[in-house]
Amino acid sequence: MNTTASGRADKFAIQVSELTRRFGHLTAVDHIELQVPYGEIFGLLGANGAGKSTLIKMLTTLLPPTSGSAEVGGFSIIRSPGQVRRRIGYVSQLLSADGALTGYENLRLSAKLYGLDKAERNVLIGDALEFMGLTDSAHKLVKTYSGGMIRRLELAQAMLHRPAILFLDEPTLGLDPVARHTVWDRLLDLRRDYGMTVLITTHDMEEAETLCDKLAILHKGRISVVGKPVELRAGLGANKTMNDVFAHYAGGLIHDGGTFSAVAQTRRTAHRLG
Ligand SMILES: Nc1ncnc2c1ncn2[C@@H]1O[C@H](COP(=O)(O)OP(=O)(O)OP(=O)(O)O)[C@@H](O)[C@H]1O
Q1: DSSP result, 81-123
Q2: CA-nearest residue, atom 1 of ligand 1
Q3: Do residues 145 and 189 share a domain?
Q4: Ligand 1 mean position, distance from CA 59 (Å)
Q5: What is the pLDDT of residue 257?
Q6: Residue among 21, 29, 48 whose CB has most ligand 1 atoms within 8 A, to mutate
Q7: What is the atom index within ligand 1 of the atom nearest the CA of 218?
Q8: Which residue's alpha carbon is at the smallest distance from atom 25 of ligand 1?
Q9: Per-residue pLDDT at 7 exceeds 50
Q10: Going by CA atoms, what residue is nearest to atom 18 of ligand 1?
Q11: How far apart are CA 131 and CA 29, in angstroms?
Q12: pLDDT attached to residue 92
């Protein structure tokens, strides 16, 4: 249990009530209810356009909701967005590290943006580099990094100020299996060492099953089911896979070769670093 600045004991890192976002006539997120306890690794699944990124953008205060409410780290995303931002780290789908800077310089930039003072800054940057296995590459340009190293650098940037809650939009998209597993290990370490709560979006059924304690599947802006991966599979019958669960609750199959957005994203990443 965490105690917020208001002194209130708070069991949930994320509490969402009737949260809704419309874009014109389209309701991208439709009256969502969600509770994520502190210390949980929580996965958001859904087909392209289901509303995952829109939900994350609202919870990270980047996009105002049309209606409804949410508390993140004990603070309202509407009334206290600054308090929310102090308690979260966010890695977006888009490449956020700057390829023309070194890993260290990227981290120093993040530290300044977070307002960390100089003495604290150097210790926290050193810790983050070490934690993500990037100490030896700290002074190399990021455009020479592999995709897995870039993801770990982005995680290092997001964990720098020791947020209570990390939001990661498709954290392992486009990574090979070894790099993917390394990212999973680091996320598990962040939970173990710092008690961080992690909310991720993913299209990867292995990631959903192996990494996440609990999953919510979104379909057309609504949550169609919430549960532990093993419960969701068992709920459909014997020998059901996560792909079956996804097809049942998300209205479609995960196709071989990835989704359109996965392919586009991978290419965007390659282009930016090229
Ligand atoms: N700024 C915007 N203006 C208009 N429509 C938007 C905007 N952002 C998202 N949408 C629409 O809202 C719906 C939900 O989009 P969102 O990006 O949240 O889905 P997603 O589940 O994250 O999809 P993906 O897996 O492709 O990232 C989609 O129909 C999308 O086209």
Answers
A1: HHHHHHTEEEE-SS--S-TTSBHHHHHHHHHHHTT--HHHHHH
A2: 23
A3: no
A4: 15
A5: 42
A6: 48
A7: 21
A8: 48
A9: no
A10: 51
A11: 35
A12: 87
Q: 79 by DSSP, 3-state: which? A: coil
Residue nearest to atom 7 of ligand 1 (CA): 23
Task: Tell me the DSSP string of 156-218.
Answer: HHHHTT--SEEEEESTTTT--HHHHHHHHHHHHHHHHHH--EEEEE-S-HHHHHHH-SEEEEE
> How far, in Å, is the centroid of ligand 1 from the Cα of 260?
13
Q: What is the ipTM of this complex?
A: 0.97
Distance CA 163, CA 197 (A): 9
Of 107, 137, 162, the domain-final residue:
162
For 79-92, the pLDDT digits (tens) are 999 999 999 999 98
| Total structural domains within the chain | 2
Each residue of 110-133: pLDDT tens digit? 999 888 888 899 999 999 999 889
Q: Check whether residue 245 and residue 117 sit in a common domain.
A: no
More confident residue, 205 or 8: 205
Structure-model confidence comparison of residues 268 and 30, the more confident one: 30
Residue 53 lies in a domain: yes
Atom of ligand 1 nearest to the CA of 203: 25
Instruction: Name the residue range of residue 193's domain.
Output: 2-72+165-273
Average pLDDT over residues 67-82: 96
Domain boundary among 127, 162, 197: 162
Please list every protein residue whose CB sits less than 6 Å from any atom of ligand 1. 23, 26, 28, 46, 48-54, 261
- Which residue lies with its CA nearest to atom 16 of ligand 1? 51
Mean pLDDT of 27-32: 97
* Contact criterion met (CB below 8 Å) for 95 and 274: no
What's the CATH code of the domain at 191?
A: 3.40.50.300
* 33 C-alpha to ligand 1 centroid (Å): 19
Q: Same structural domain for residues 240 and 261? A: yes
Q: How far is the CA of 42 from the centre of ligand 1 (A)?
A: 20
Mean pLDDT for the stretch of residues 6-16:
74
Q: pTM value?
A: 0.87
